[in-house]
Specification:
Distance between the termini of chain B: 135 Å
Mean pLDDT of chain A: 85
Number of helices of chain B: 22
Order of helices and strands of chain A: EHEHEEEHEHEHH
Oligomer: heterodimer
Strand content of chain B: 5-15%
Strand content of chain A: 15-25%
Low-confidence stretches of chain A: 121-130
Shape of chain A: globular
Helix content of chain A: 40-55%
CATH architecture of chain A: 3-Layer(aba) Sandwich
Helix content of chain B: 55-70%
Structural class of chain B: alpha+beta
Chain lengths: ~130, ~650
C-alpha cells in the first residue's frame, strides 16, 4: 500500500514513518509539507492512502481534503490533528476524509485506524506487533 | 393859592357857623378854631358831614362810639362835647330824630374800660360766633355793642390786636358798613388831632354848665382814670419791665442752649467777622471766645477752602440758608477736621441780612468711620475680585487638568484595550506555539518511543520505554490543555457555543461545580472581538464562582437580542459581601471584574451585577452591529469603532 505523508513538521513525518516501518505492507511513497505539495505529490505518486495534517501554515487541511477527494475519489484520507478527535470528526467526514486521528494518540491509533480504513482485518490483530 | 380878604372871610365864616348850628342845634367851638381860614373850617365841616353826620351808620351808635373813642384823647373837648350831644345838648350826630340818652347811660358808657387780653378774646369770640353780617347795628348798652366798640377801639388805637379785630369787624358788619365805620374812625381821629393841635379850645357854655351840675359825669370826663391815650401808653410802659424780663429769660435760655450745645455755634457779620463763639466752638476749634470774637472767620478756614467762604457769604446776602454743608476746617493746633455746617442768615428788625449764624458739627469720626467702611469695602471688593480671578484661574487649571485626566483616562482605557487585545493575541500565539511546536515535538517523541517499544527485545527496556511513552502522552495532553485554556481553538473554528461547552466540561471535570449551559439555538457566529470578550467574561465569572462563591450550580445563559448579544451568569453561592460589591461597583477593587468591565466598555456594552445571600447574577449586553457570520472582520472593526 502506497502511503503519502503530509505534515509540515518533519519530526512528525519521521515519527509516522517509524511507526509504519514496523508494518512492511505499508510503504511510504512520498512526503509533503504543505497543501500545494500534497496535491502535486498525490497526482504524481497516485498513493492509496494519504495521512493529512489538518493544520499547516498557509493551508487548511479540510480544503486540501476536499480538493484531493474531488480529483481522486478512490484515495483513502486520514486526517491528523492536534485537536480533540471527537470535535474534529464531523468536519473531517464532511470534507471527504475517511478517518481522523488525534496526533497525541498516533503511536497507539495510527496502525489500527489505517487497518480499519483500508479494510485489512488481518492487520488489526497484529497492531503494535513487529 | 389866593387868600380871601377879611370881609369876605368874616361873611363865609358866619355862613358856615349858621349851617353848623342849624345841623347840631348848637354851635360847637370846634368849628370856630381858625376864623381866619374859613376854607379850612369849610373842609372840616365837609369831612364832618361826610364821615360823621351823613354817615349812614345809626346816629346814636355813631355818637356813643364818638364818646367812647374820645376817651382816648388827651384833650377833653371832644368827649365833653359829644357827651353833650348824646344827652340832648344839641343833636346826636346832627340828627333831629335821634333820641337823647340819660346822663346815667352816658356815665355807664364812659366807665367801660378798654377791653384787652382775655376780655378782648371773649369779645372776639362773641363777634366771631354770632350770626353775621348783623341785620341791624347794635342798640345802646348791649353786649354786642360793647364788643363792637371794643374791637373798633383797638382798630382806632392801632394796637397789636387791631388786625384781627378788623377781620372780625369785617365779618360782623360786611364790607360796606366796615368802610363807613373806618371812615367814621378817620374823622374821630382827625377831630382829636385837630383839638390837640388847638389846645386853646374851650368847652361851650352848655357843657360847662352840664359838668358843673353833674359831678359824676364831670368826674368821668375830666378825670378819666383808665381810658385816656396817655393811660394806655402808660400801661404799656408799665408792662415793659416784665416783658424785658421775659425777653431776657428767653435770651438767657437761648444762650444756655447755645452754650450747652455739642455743636459749635458761631455768628459772624457779612464781612466774615466773628461776633459770637460758644463753648463747643472753643472745644472744637481750640480758640477761646475772647480769641475768636472780632477775628475773621478765615481763622478756622484752611487756605485751600477760602473760596468756599465767598460763595457762602454771597448766598447769605441773598438770604439763603445752607444746610449740612460738609467741609473741612482747621483747629488752632493746625489739625484739620471734617465738619458739617448749617448756616442761617441773621436779620435785623427790618429783615435785612446783617450776618450769619453757623452751626458746625464735628463729623471727623463719622468721616473716619465712612472712610474705614469705604476702605473695608474696597479691600473686600479687591479681595473678592482677586478671589474671583483666583477661582477663575483655578477653575481653568482644574478644567485643563480635568481635560488632561479625561484624555489620560481615555488613553489609559485605550492602552488597557490594546493590552487586552495584545494579551489575547499573545495567548493565542503562545497557545498555537505550544500546540503546534512543543505539541508536535512531543507527538513525534511519542511515536519514536512507540517505535522503540516495538523494536525492543529486552522486557526491561520495553517496560521503561512504555512508561516513558505514557509520560509523553500525559505531557502532550497537559500541553494541549494549557494551550486550549490560553486560547481555545474551537472559539475560532466553531464559535462561542462550542468553545463554552468545551470549557465548561473541562471545568466540571476539574471541580465539584455543576454548570448549566443555556444557549439559544439561534445563537450564531459573532464578531471575533465579541466572541472573545464573552468567552473571557464567562471564564472570569466561572473562575470567581469556583474560587469564592461556594456555589453548587452555575447557570450560563446566552441569547441574541435584536442587535445585542446577551450573557447572564448566575450562581447559587453566598453572594458578594456588601463592601466588596461597593468597591467593585466603584471600580476600586476586583482586577478580574475591572478587566471584564473594560472589555464591556470597549465594546460599548452594559454590565450589571446583582448580588445577595442567595447568589450573584452578572448580566452583560453587547451591541452586535452585523448579523453576517461571514463578515467577521468587518463586524469586528465596526464594533470596535462604535
Amino acid at each position: 500500500m502506497q502511503i503519502l505523508i503530509v505534515d509540515d513538521n518533519e519530526m512528525v513525518r519521521r515519527g509516522v514513518k517509524l511507526l509504519l516501518s514496523s508494518w512492511p505492507a505499508y510503504v511510504v511513497c512520498g512526503e509533503a509539507s504543505n497543501g500545494k505539495e500534497a496535491v502535486a505529490k498525490t497526482q504524481q505518486l497516485q498513493p492509496n492512502l494519504i495521512l493529512l495534517d489538518i493544520s499547516m501554515p498557509g493551508s487548511n487541511g479540510f480544503e486540501i481534503a476536499v480538493a484531493i477527494r474531488r480529483e481522486f475519489p478512490a484515495v483513502k484520507i486520514i486526517i491528523l490533528s492536534q485537536h480533540d478527535k471527537l470535535r474534529l470528526l464531523p468536519r473531517a467526514l464532511e470534507a471527504g476524509a475517511d478517518a481522523c486521528i488525534d496526533k497525541n494518540s498516533l503511536s497507539t491509533e495510527l496502525l489500527t485506524t489505517i487497518h480499519s480504513v483500508v479494510g485489512n482485518a488481518d492487520a488489526l490483530g497484529t497492531e503494535d506487533v513487529p | 393859592m389866593a387868600f380871601n380878604n377879611d370881609q369876605s372871610t368874616g361873611t363865609a365864616a358866619r355862613e358856615l357857623q349858621l349851617r353848623v348850628n342849624e345841623r347840631f342845634g348848637v354851635l360847637p367851638n370846634f368849628f370856630q378854631l381858625s376864623p381866619e381860614t374859613p376854607e379850612i373850617t369849610e373842609k372840616l365841616w365837609g369831612f364832618a358831614r361826610a364821615a360823621y353826620l351823613d354817615n349812614p351808620l345809626p346816629s346814636v351808635f355813631k355818637e356813643r362810639l364818638f364818646v367812647r373813642l374820645s376817651r382816648f384823647c388827651a384833650v377833653r373837648y371832644c368827649i365833653a362835647r359829644h357827651t353833650g350831644f348824646l344827652i340832648g345838648l344839641g343833636r346826636p350826630a346832627g340828627d333831629e330824630a335821634a333820641r337823647a340818652e340819660t346822663i346815667e347811660d352816658v356815665v355807664k358808657l364812659l366807665r367801660r374800660p378798654l377791653s384787652r387780653g382775655p376780655e378782648l378774646e371773649s369779645y372776639l369770640s362773641l363777634c366771631s360766633e354770632c350770626p353775621a353780617p348783623l341785620g341791624e347795628m347794635p342798640t345802646a348798652d348791649t353786649q354786642i355793642e360793647d364788643g363792637l366798640f371794643s374791637l373798633a377801639s383797638h382798630v382806632f388805637l392801632q394796637t397789636a390786636d387791631a388786625p384781627k379785630c378788623l377781620n372780625v369787624l369785617e365779618r360782623l358788619l360786611g364790607t360796606v358798613r366796615l368802610q363807613y365805620l373806618l371812615l367814621f374812625l378817620a374823622f374821630v381821629r382827625a377831630a382829636h388831632y385837630w383839638t390837640r393841635v388847638h389846645p386853646e379850645i374851650q368847652f361851650e357854655d352848655d357843657i360847662n354848665q352840664l359838668l358843673a351840675t353833674n359831678e359824676a359825669l364831670a368826674s368821668c370826663i375830666l378825670d378819666d382814670p383808665e381810658s385816656s391815650t396817655d393811660k394806655v401808653t402808660q400801661s404799656i410802659l408799665d408792662e415793659i419791665p416784665a416783658l424785658r424780663l421775659k425777653a431776657d429769660k428767653a435770651v438767657g435760655l437761648l444762650a444756655s442752649i447755645v452754650d450747652s450745645s455739642d455743636d459749635a455755634i458761631v455768628s459772624k457779620t457779612l464781612d466774615g467777622i466773628i461776633t459770637s463763639w460758644n463753648h463747643s466752638a472753643e472745644r472744637m476749634f481750640g480758640y477761646l471766645e475772647s480769641e475768636a470774637i472780632g477775628q475773621h472767620i478765615n481763622l478756622i478756614i484752611p487756605d485751600d477752602r477760602r473760596g468756599e467762604e465767598a460763595t457762602i457769604l454771597a448766598d447769605l446776602r441773598k438770604g439763603k440758608r445752607i444746610e449740612h454743608f460738609e467741609t473741612i476746617r482747621v483747629r488752632k493746633d493746625g489739625t484739620r477736621l471734617d465738619i458739617s455746617l448749617t448756616i442761617s442768615p441773621l436779620r435785623d428788625h427790618a429783615g435785612n441780612v446783617i450776618g450769619a449764624s453757623k452751626v458746625a458739627r464735628d463729623i471727623t469720626d463719622r468721616k473716619r468711620a465712612e472712610k474705614a467702611l469705604r476702605d473695608t469695602e474696597n479691600e473686600l471688593r479687591t479681595l473678592a475680585e482677586s478671589l474671583e480671578s483666583q477661582v477663575q484661574l483655578r477653575t481653568q487649571e482644574l478644567e485643563t487638568r480635568n481635560t488632561q485626566i479625561t484624555q489620560q483616562a481615555e488613553q489609559l482605557r485605550e492602552l488597557s484595550n490594546r493590552l487586552q487585545y495584545t494579551q489575547d493575541e499573545e495567548r493565542r500565539r503562545i497557545a498555537r506555539d505550544l500546540h503546534d511546536s512543543a505539541g508536535q515535538v512531543v507527538t513525534a517523541l511519542g511515536m519514536h518511543l512507540s517505535s522503540i517499544t516495538q523494536g525492543a527485545a529486552e522486557p526491561e527496556v520495553r517496560k521503561t520505554v512504555e512508561e516513558s511513552r505514557e509520560m509523553v502522552r500525559q505531557l502532550a495532553t497537559e500541553i494541549r490543555t494549557v494551550s486550549y485554556l490560553l486560547h481555545p481553538p474551537l472559539l475560532d473554528e466553531n464559535g462561542l457555543p462550542d468553545a463554552l461547552r468545551w470549557y465548561t466540561e473541562g471545568l466540571v471535570q476539574r471541580s465539584d461545580l455543576k454548570i448549566v449551559l443555556d444557549i439559544s439555538t439561534d445563537f450564531k457566529r459573532l464578531p471575533d472581538a465579541v466572541e472573545m470578550a464573552l468567552f473571557r467574561i464567562v471564564q472570569e465569572c466561572l473562575t470567581n464562582i469556583h474560587r469564592h462563591s461556594r456555589a453548587k450550580t452555575a447557570t450560563i445563559r446566552l441569547a441574541r437580542g435584536v442587535s445585542t448579544a446577551v450573557l447572564e451568569v448566575r450562581d447559587d453561592g453566598v453572594g458578594i459581601a456588601k463592601d466588596t460589591l461597593a468597591a467593585i461597583l466603584t471600580q476600586r477593587s476586583g482586577v478580574g471584574m475591572a478587566g471584564m468591565r473594560e472589555r464591556v466598555r470597549h465594546l460599548r456594552g452594559d454590565l450589571d451585577i446583582q448580588s445577595d445571600s442567595t447568589g450573584t447574577t452578572i448580566s452583560i449586553s453587547l451591541p452586535v452591529v452585523t448579523g453576517s457570520v461571514g463578515d467577521k472582520e468587518i463586524a469586528y472593526k465596526a464594533n470596535a469603532a462604535v
